[in-house]
Amino acid sequence: MKTRFAPSPTGYIHMGNARTALFSYLAAQAAGGKFVLRIEDTDAERSREEYVDALKDDLQWLGLPWQEGPDVDKGNGPYWQSQRDAIYAEYYQKLQAMGMVYPCFCTPVELEVMRKMQAQAGLPPRYDGRHANLTAEQVAERKAAGQPFTLRFRVPKGEEVVFDDTVKGKQRYKTDDIGDFIIARGDGSPAFFFCNAIDDALMGISHVLRGEDHLSNTPRQILMLKALGLPIPSYGHINLILGSDGSPLSKRNGSRNIRQMQAEGFRPDAVLNYMARLGHYYENPAYMTVSELGTNFNIANCGSAPARFDEAQLHHWQKEAVMRMDDATWWDWIGAETQTCVPADQKTLFIEAIRPNTVFPQDAKVWADIVFTDLTLPTEAEQAVGATGDAFLTAVEASVDLSYAEMVEAVKAASGAKGKGLFMPLRLLMSGRHDGPELAKLWQLVGRERLLSRLGQVMTVKVG
Ligand code: GLU
């Protein structure tokens, strides 16, 4: 199996096209096949090299390496469509020689009028073939007069294009419903879906997985490849991703590009575990490594109903991924600003205690501030701790140099507090919060001086 990701570098890759890349990558992995990266930069105006660099970085960050593509030529290059003009020209000539293409001199206005008349007559918009049978003289005359023209593919009449979409099942299209379509624009530049089909065939792509917005291109691509005697890959069109509000995924309802997610502190394996299940079903509901996601991937498990983006699910996988980071990676991930807050001799303990309480890097900063700076306890916390009474507070004060276990025993004995009545005030005293790291570790991290200062705040309130 050979799959590919064929992005147009007109922007940063976002969850939609990253998922297409992922499914293609995983399908190849599952079959022990190859994954190709091809840059579809035929739109010279909108394509930018910085987006190519960015998408390569993003794929690398996600952990989806390509076995063939830019920088890895396996004899099918170039892998940039902008460098393949000679190849496309050769196939145009072949089609021309077979009489399968013809120049169309219709102006945009003429085409617009055609569409309007069809709409009025209740017909679907379709090129009516008015220049399909110009004589050689007529063509020569128009060309001599400098009339611009496009190249149209001559769609055979009265046939049916049938293919088994690996995701959507059997698809049938009557060729009579497909008008002769443009494969080269007026300026001679090739139409996107022409290059796309030619390249898939020449690069030996066996399975195309792509967004369902390309479904209607498929019968035309099959017609062209068939005419040229080129191999036809199997096509699968994956469902749209809808935003949380049910409309197509966009910036407004949760979509972001992959670099943004990286900047927000998302882990690549979290994004992968999330996306691999967005429109694809795994029997195993647990966290998987990329290689496990690959082994267990099955195109047949891609659903055709739209997938819905769910931020809570994404966060679930983020928690799973953060739990699995090793210490060095986690330390790196929390960033320099937080790292400098942590005294060298507390680093190991800080990692151990705080890691289970982080979902994003800034959570580590919040805890570094709580344990290593002069925290002002929230009033609510001061009151709750104060309410425990003098015996409790004095026992804590007398235990600041003891271990956590010894302190707990002393406080229990002096105040009779137990269970939640014992542990919650201790937690509130140490951190001002109801949740957080293990108390024994918190006790060590906060340390005697800051503990005394927090106790002082509570006692002042009591006295006042
Ligand atoms: N360049 C196309 C796109 O980004 C690729 C379509 C395809 O995967 O066939 O939408």
SSE layout and pairing:
Layout (H helix, E strand, L loop, with lengths): L1 E4 L9 H16 L3 E4 L11 H14 L22 H13 L3 E4 L3 H13 L15 H9 L5 E4 L6 E6 L3 E6 L6 E4 L7 H11 L4 E5 L6 H11 L5 E5 L2 E2 L15 H6 L4 H8 L14 H6 L11 E2 L2 H13 L3 H8 L1 H4 L7 H8 L6 H12 L6 H8 L3 H9 L5 H12 L4 H12 L7 H25 L1
Parallel strand pairs: 1-2, 8-9, 10-11
Antiparallel strand pairs: 3-4, 4-7, 5-6
Helix pairs in contact: 6-7, 9-11, 14-20, 16-19, 16-20, 17-18, 19-20
The site of glutamic acid has 8 residues, from strand 8.
Written account of the structure:
The structure is a single chain. With 464 residues, this protein is mainly alpha-helical. Helices cover 47% and strands 10% of the residues. Among the domains are: 155 residues, Rossmann fold; 85 residues, Orthogonal Bundle (Arc Repressor Mutant, subunit A), CATH 1.10.10. It contains 20 helices and 11 strands. The strands form 5 sheets. A 3-stranded antiparallel sheet has the order 3-4-7. Bound molecules: glutamic acid. The site of glutamic acid has 8 residues, from strand 8.
Total number of beta strands: 11
The CATH superfamily name of the domain at 84-238 is: HUPs
> What is the fold-level CATH name, i.e. the topology of the domain at 84-238?
Rossmann fold
Mean of all residue-level pLDDT scores: 96
Oligomer description: single chain
The number of helical segments is: 20
CATH uppermost class of the domain at 84-238: Alpha Beta
Hetero compounds: glutamic acid
Instruction: List low-pLDDT spans.
Output: none
CATH architecture of the domain at 84-238: 3-Layer(aba) Sandwich
Q: Structural class of the helices, strands and pairings?
A: mainly alpha
Major β-sheet profile: 3 strands, antiparallel
